[in-house]
């Protein structure tokens, strides 16, 4: 299983920064969440229908980040997401945030572990075999 890394372009707005014009640390996790959601949508995984039609949800069970350099007001960033490990009911996603393009300065190195659960019971469920197949579109 090979899935190419996903990239999301983000611009730093005033609302993303602290009093010094530097991105507030928690907002990096928001940027990473957006990239994961867009990546999963691109793979055909719709959170709303997964929850409403299938009774399944994804929850983050671990999140980490190493803050290497700050982003500032007006910066344009690239946020990446790539699958690094797939288990029976969970998966690991590596995420980086770069200034400019993905060959630019690495600002944040991090990732998450997400679990696939039955919404009603919050019990782990087997991830469908087709979950991480790339759409040809």
Outline of the structure:
This protein is an alpha+beta fold and 137 residues long. Helix content is 18%, strand content 39%. It has helices at 25-42, 47-52, and strands at 6-11, 56-67, 76-86, 90-99, 106-118, 123-124.
Structure description:
The structure is a single chain. By secondary structure, the chain is α+β, with helices and mostly antiparallel strands. The chain has one domain: Thiol Ester Dehydrase, Chain A, CATH 3.10.129.10. 18% of the residues lie in helices and 39% in strands. The protein contains two helices and six strands, in the order E-H-H-E-E-E-E-E. Strands 1, 2, 3, 4, 5 and 6 form a six-stranded antiparallel sheet that branches. The protein is elongated. The mean pLDDT is 93.
Any chance you could write out the topology, listing elements then pairs?
Elements: E1 6-11, H1 25-42, H2 47-52, E2 56-67, E3 76-86, E4 90-99, E5 106-118, E6 123-124
Antiparallel strand pairs: 1-3, 2-5, 3-4, 4-5, 5-6
CATH topology: Thiol Ester Dehydrase, Chain A
Residue ranges: pLDDT <50 for 5 or more in a row? none
Order of helices and strands: EHHEEEEE
Largest β-sheet summary = 6 strands, antiparallel
Strand residues, percent: 35-45%
Number of helices: 2
Average pLDDT score: 93
Please compute the radius of gyration using only Cα atoms: 16 Å
Structural class: alpha+beta
- For the secondary structure, the number of strands is 6
- Quaternary structure state of the chains depicted: single chain
Features:
elongated; alpha+beta; 137 residues; 18% helix; Thiol Ester Dehydrase, Chain A
């Amino acid at each position: 299983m090979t899935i190419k890394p996903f990239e999301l372009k983000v611009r730093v707005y005033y609302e993303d920064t602290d009093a010094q014009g530097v991105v507030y640390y928690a907002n990096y996790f928001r940027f990473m969440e957006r990239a994961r959601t867009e990546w999963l949508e691109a793979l055909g995984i719709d959170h709303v229908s997964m929850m409403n039609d299938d009774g399944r949800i994804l929850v983050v069970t671990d999140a980490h980040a190493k803050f290497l350099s700050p982003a500032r007001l007006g910066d344009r960033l690239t946020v990446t997401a790539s699958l690094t490990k797939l288990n029976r009911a969970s998966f690991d996603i590596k995420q980086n945030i770069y200034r400019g393009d993905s060959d630019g300065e690495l600002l944040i190195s991090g990732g998450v572990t997400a679990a696939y659960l039955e919404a009603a019971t919050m019990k782990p469920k087997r991830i469908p075999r087709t979950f991480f197949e790339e759409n040809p579109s």
